[in-house]
Amino acid sequence: MKAAILLASGGLDSTTVGYKLAEDGFYVLPIFFDYGQHCVETEWAKVREVLPSHFEKPERNTISDLFRGSSSRLIAEANLWEDKVVDDDLYVPYRTLLFYAAAAARAQTLGILSVYTGFINSNHAKEIDCTAEFMNKLDGLSEEIGPVRFVSPFRYWSKFEVTQEALRLGVPIGKTFSCQAASELPCGACPNCVERLAALRQAGLLT
Predict the structure, then answer these.
(1) Stretch 14-40: mean pLDDT, rounded?
(2) Per the domain annotation, does 171 fall within a domain?
(3) How far is 98 from 103, CA to CA, in rounded Å?
(4) How far is residue 152's CA from residue 17's CA, in Å, rounded to a whole number?
(5) How far apart, in Å, are the Cα atoms of 155 and each of 14, 15, 64, 66, 129?
(6) CA 25 to CA 9: how far, in whole Å?
(7) d(CA 180, CA 202)
C-alpha cells in the first residue's frame, strides 16, 4: 500500500488533500504542528474531527518554544475590537521551512518517503514562504539531502479550485478552520478568512 505523511492543520486545503489520498488508496499518517499558534487547540480538535476516520491517529508535534516571545498575531492573539492587524503582523519567520524539515525527519524515521501538504499558491503578499516559488526551492533542497519527497497537489491551484475538489470528495467544508486572527471562531476579516469566503461564494455555497 502507498504510504504518506500528511501535514494536517484542520483547514480546508490540507483536509482536502487528505480526502484525495483516501480516494487514491493511501495509508496516511497525519501530523500536526503546535508552533505556539493561539488557535492551536481549535486546530488540533479540527484535525481529529475532519479527516477520514480510517486514517491513523494524528500525531501532535510541538515546536512552540522556537517562537516563544513572538509578536506575530498568529502567536499573540489580537483583541479584534481594539487592535489593528495588518498582513505584516501575521508572518511567522521560517515556519514553513521548519515544517518541511521536521516532517522530512519524521517521515524518514518511520520509513515513509512521501509527505503531502495542502499549501496553495497563496495570494497573501506577506506569506513569502507559502508561494509556489518557495515550495519549488524547498523541493530542490530536499532532493539533495535524502529520500523524502514533498507533494503539494494544490501548489498552483486557487482556493476556489480547492473548494470545487473538496465538494467532489465530500469534504466536511463547514467543519474546517483556518482563521489567522481569532482562536475559536473565524473572524471573517483576516487574509485566510477573506480568501475562503470568496471561494465559497464563487462555488455557490454562500450568498
Answers:
(1) 98
(2) yes
(3) 8
(4) 9
(5) 12, 15, 26, 27, 12
(6) 21
(7) 22
Q: Record the cell numbers describing residue 111, joined without a space.
A: 520509513
Whichever domain contains 10, its CATH number is 3.40.50.620
Count other Cβ atoms within 10 Å, centred on residue 32: 21
Domain assignment present for 207: no
* 168 in a structural domain: yes
DSSP state of 58: P
* Gap between the Cα atoms of 134 and 117, Å rounded: 14
Note down the domain range covering 8.
3-202
Instruction: Establish if 118 belongs to a structural domain.
Output: yes
Q: Which residues, in sequence order, are bridge partners of residue 28? A: 4
**Total structural domains within the chain:** 1
Span 149-188, pLDDT tens digits: 999 999 889 999 999 999 999 999 999 999 999 999 999 9
Q: Are 162 and 27 spatial neighbours (Cβ–Cβ below 8 Å)?
A: no
Phi, psi values for residue 146, rounded to 5°: -160, -170
pTM across the whole model: 0.93
* Amino acid in the structure at residue 109: T
Phi, psi (degrees; rounded to nearest 5) at 115: -120, 120
Within 10 Å of residue 103's Cβ, how many Cβ atoms?
Answer: 22
Taking only the tens place, the pLDDT of each residue in 43-79 is 999 999 999 999 999 999 999 999 999 999 999 999 9
Record the cell numbers describing residue 166, joined without a space.
Answer: 473538496
